[in-house]
Amino acid sequence: MASVPDDIFFASIGEINQKLKAKELSVLELTTAFSDRIERLGPRFNALALSLRDEARRTARDVDGDIKRERFRGPLQGVPFGAKDLLAYAGQPTTWGARPYAGQVFDYTATVLKKLAKTGSILTAKLAMVELAGGPNYRYANASLTGPGLNPWDRTRWSGGSSSGSAIAVAAGLVTFALGSETSGSILTPSAFCGVTGLRPTYGLVSRHGAMPLSWTLDKIGPICRSAEDCGLVLQTLAGSDSDDPGSAGKSFYYAPAYTRDLTEIRAGFAPVDFDEWADPDARPDLKKALETMKSLGVQLVETKLPDFPYGAVLGTILSAEAGSVFEPLIQSGQVDQLADQKQIAGLKAALEIPAKDYLKAMRVRTLIQSAFRDLLSDIDVLISPSRMTPAPKINQPLDRPLSDRPAPQTPGFAALIPAGNLAGLPALSLPCGFAGGMPVAIQIVGRPFTENTLLAIGKALQERTDWHKRRPPLNEG
């Protein structure tokens, strides 16, 4: 078998597709090399839930046959990827990252995985996650069946959650792209901490059929990739109507950044306090450079404020009430006590006690939030802020402690943009934009519903001017 060059593990979807079509390497060779790599390095970072080597190699042989006959199915054909272990894959364990479900096997496959299979992309692994996708809350990074997600840039630091394995695998070159899910930050946070590009789609754009439900009205599935362009190519396959998902918006998506508005027409709202005071002091220089790069692209930066709502409390009530309903059998059976995180256990038990009136009130306030964001985004096209205000924390640091020992700024800025954007169902793109103390930092762009092409066009332009998305962690593989 021909040797696969190391650069291929960090190549883009387009680069891999070109090499396969040119027959510079076979899909089987590529799949075997990626399988070897994730089995060797995945456990080092607690990123691997399940290797699918045998299934992947069988699929690879079939795809090689198609390519040999010049039956080309698009840019994802033959490209190895991984999926967060909350997505059902028929006949294989789907653990949801939690001990009570360690032996769980479904007889059906999630819609998104079936869509990717039709393109000829190769599922090589199920990827680790925080137990039950974080549930109502968790206190420590080790809240997972596979252990804490260790950051490829520094294994003493956290990868972020709950899509921990997905971001690790992309950052460490274990897969070309991965699927994650977000209810409140679970794509954006690990993407930011691991220095990769993550896209949270508009609520309802991507089917969740076959995915573990956490919060029916908040859950979203999206891609974690090397670049904005790769996110667009993957989303194009994932998006679309699905009668098996009651939350489906019935919309499709075609990646076409060339046909979006000129960037000089884009008005981007931001809060200077985010970059001057909220962000970690070591992160501020590169975050501000990202803003300057946006400005140099012609994007009009406009100071603005988020509508004034208790976003965290509203989202927490909705998520907890819905999670309590989803996991009622787990809680009532007592198996909830098998979870790894005590705060997670307590939160799920308390979720069953949330009064209906509190849930309904939170949903009414959420309607007001959605209306307020419609008004805000009628004048402004996108919102920009740091994806996270600090780099990844130490792996043993309690996640419910304050972001830093510094006094909180008097002005809130966009500190609540992640819960706000999820409540409003808005799409968001996290882009690596520098480092602080050797750890990645990132900027997020949030837009109106179903304006993913606008976000991706801005992200693509930014990444054409910078190379942060091409940086590789020092894996020391020897």
Task: Summarize the helices and strands and which ones pair or pack.
Layout: H1 13-21, H2 27-41, E1 48-51, H3 53-68, E2 80-84, H4 111-119, E3 122-127, E4 150-151, E5 154-158, H5 164-171, E6 177-182, H6 188-194, E7 197-200, E8 220-225, H7 228-238, E9 267-270, H8 272-278, H9 284-296, E10 300-303, H10 311-326, H11 328-333, H12 342-351, H13 356-379, E11 382-386, H14 417-424, E12 428-436, E13 439-447, H15 452-465
Parallel strand pairs: 2-3, 2-6, 9-10, 9-11
Antiparallel strand pairs: 1-3, 4-5, 6-8, 7-8, 7-12, 11-13, 12-13
Average of the residue pLDDT scores: 96
What is the topology, as strand order, of the major beta sheet?
Answer: 1-3-2-6-8-7-12-13-11-9-10
Tally of DSSP helical segments: 15
Shape: globular
Number of strands: 13
- Could you list the spans in which at least 5 consecutive residues all have pLDDT below 50? none
Radius of gyration: 21 Å
Q: How many angstroms does the end-to-end distance come to?
A: 22 Å
What profile does the largest beta sheet have? 11 strands, mixed
Structural class: alpha/beta
Percentage of residues in helical conformation:
25-40%
Question: What this model shows, in words?
Answer:
The structure is a single chain. With 478 residues, the chain is of the alpha/beta class. The chain contains 15 helices and 13 strands. The protein has helices at 13-21, 27-41, 53-68, 111-119, 164-171, 188-194, 228-238, 272-278, 284-296, 311-326, 328-333, 342-351, 356-379, 417-424, 452-465; strands at residues 48-51, 80-84, 122-127, 150-151, 154-158, 177-182, 197-200, 220-225, 267-270, 300-303, 382-386, 428-436, 439-447. The strands form 2 sheets. The chain has an 11-stranded mixed β-sheet, with helices on both faces. Strands 4-5 form a two-stranded antiparallel ribbon. A hairpin with a 2-residue loop joins β4 and β5. α10 (311-326) packs across α14 (417-424). The longest helix is centred in the last third of the chain and has 24 residues, at 356-379.
